[in-house]
From TrEMBL:
The keyword Transmembrane helix applies. The chain crosses the membrane at residues 30-49, 61-91, 97-120. One of its GO terms (molecular function) is hydrolase activity. Residues 146-312 form the Calcineurin-like phosphoesterase domain. It holds the Pfam family Metallophos. CDD domains: MPP_YkuE_C (cd07385). It comes from Asaia bogorensis NBRC 16594. This is Metallophosphoesterase. The keyword Transmembrane applies. PANTHER family: TRANSMEMBRANE PROTEIN WITH METALLOPHOSPHOESTERASE DOMAIN (PTHR31302:SF0), TRANSMEMBRANE PROTEIN WITH METALLOPHOSPHOESTERASE DOMAIN-RELATED (PTHR31302). Keywords: Membrane, Transmembrane, Transmembrane helix. The lineage of its organism: Bacteria, Pseudomonadati, Pseudomonadota, Alphaproteobacteria, Acetobacterales. InterPro entries: Calcineurin-like_PHP, Metallo-depent_PP-like, Metallophosphoesterase_sf.
Length: 378
């Protein structure tokens, strides 16, 4: 798939967009070198670290690569659209249409601007988003209970220690009762990321920190990461659950492993095991990195599922394609029978495609309300 994408970028951008511009040949040749270099961003990432998922280059360089790669993508889309329109006009008028310099310059300028905006939206420290969720059977002791969700942090050169520190500060300021992370803490080995993830140990909530793994944890020394994340104060929920009790009432927080686990020789997600032995009648909050299995969770009586993985689809329009790979779930809130599914757009994003347009990052705070209390207010 990647060779096809790179080939499309090369052909459309070089032949259809760059070459017809009235530029000197040396300038065009230099531009071609830059275009090819930007399109091979993921190959440079692999050379820098051994993995396409962890570009071990200085942060400004990785951000510049993301901007250039995004600009190439937007130029490709823009030029194809202009070519299609020109072809339709030519067909209607029955004579050829020459696409002039001004449209090409406009495509390039707009592509550069959109990519810059997309990268800025992706790498910023996200704002806090508040969601109120009605939970059937929620005990009065938990009415107003607050859960802060982080997900898809992808702590890397793009999201380093100082970014993590700001995320921790903003999350702690919420004053949530419980903080959860629904996977994809990192990209890179423990040795590579040890210092960058250290600020997560400063996250604090009365009922502690709980988490489930994402698919990216399996790409980098999964067992070592599970142990290290535990030393940061997290209770890793690997097909298991924990109870939170107040005034004799219980709230179940369950978590499952990621759907990619089996392909890495690890335990695949097992919702039945995660829920086994839970107190009868106690509402269940499920942490599952990928949202695709939400209908099964709803059938098993889960009240609220918190997921990530999709990054919200990253770009408005592209989100429809991402949804198709996740059983239709891609961004934010869905009601599935009596269960609420929330698919966070993500706190960070994979540094190999760090662009966001119309799908902003977030730190999410959930305010739990009993169905009875909401009914009374209504």
């Amino acid at each position: 798939m990647r060779p096809f994408i790179f080939g499309t970028l090369f052909v459309v951008v070089i032949l259809n967009w760059l070459w017809p511009l009235p530029l000197a040949l040396p300038v065009k040749l230099a531009a071609i070198i830059l275009i090819v270099g930007a399109a091979l961003f993921h190959q440079w990432s692999r050379l820098s670290s051994g993995s396409v998922f962890a570009p071990e280059m200085p942060r400004p360089v990785v951000i510049l690569f993301n901007w250039a790669f995004g600009a190439l993508m937007f130029v490709t889309v823009g030029q194809i659209m202009v070519d299609i329109v020109a072809a339709l006009v030519a067909l209607v008028q029955w004579h050829g249409i020459v696409i002039g310099t001004i449209p090409r310059v406009a495509i390039g300028g707009l592509a550069a601007l959109l990519s810059a905006l997309g990268v800025w939206n992706a790498v910023r420290v996200p704002p806090v988003r508040h969601e109120t969720v009605s939970i059937k059977g929620l005990a009065p002791a938990f009415d107003g209970y607050r859960i802060a969700q982080l997900t898809d942090l992808h702590i890397t050169q793009v999201f380093p220690r100082r970014w993590a520190e700001e995320v921790v500060s903003r999350t702690n300021a919420i004053g949530a009762d419980l903080i959860v992370v629904t996977g994809d803490f990192i990209d890179g080995s423990v040795a590579m990321r040890r210092d960058d993830v250290a600020p997560l140990a400063q996250l604090a909530a009365p009922d502690g920190l709980m988490a489930c793994p994402g698919n990216h944890e399996y790409f980098f020394d999964y067992r070592e990461w599970m142990q290290h994340i535990g030393t940061l104060g997290f209770h890793m929920l690997l097909n298991t659950h924990r109870l939170i009790t107040r005034n004799g009432a219980s709230l179940v927080v369950a978590g499952v492993t990621d759907h990619s686990a089996a392909s890495h020789g690890e335990a695949k997600p097992n919702l039945a095991a995660a829920l086994a032995g839970r107190p009868e009648g106690a509402p269940v909050i499920l942490l599952d990195h990928q949202p695709g299995g939400a209908r099964e969770a709803a059938a098993q009586g889960v009240a609220l599922q918190l997921s990530g993985h999709t990054h919200g689809g990253m770009i408005y329009g592209l989100d429809r394609m991402v949804a198709r790979g996740n059983n239709g779930f891609v961004s934010r809130r869905y009601e599935i029978g009596a269960m609420t599914l929330y698919v966070s757009n993500g706190t960070g994003i994979w540094p190999g495609f760090a662009l966001r347009l119309g799908r902003p990052s977030e730190i999410t705070c959930f305010h739990l309300k009993s169905a009875r209390s909401l009914a009374r207010k209504g």
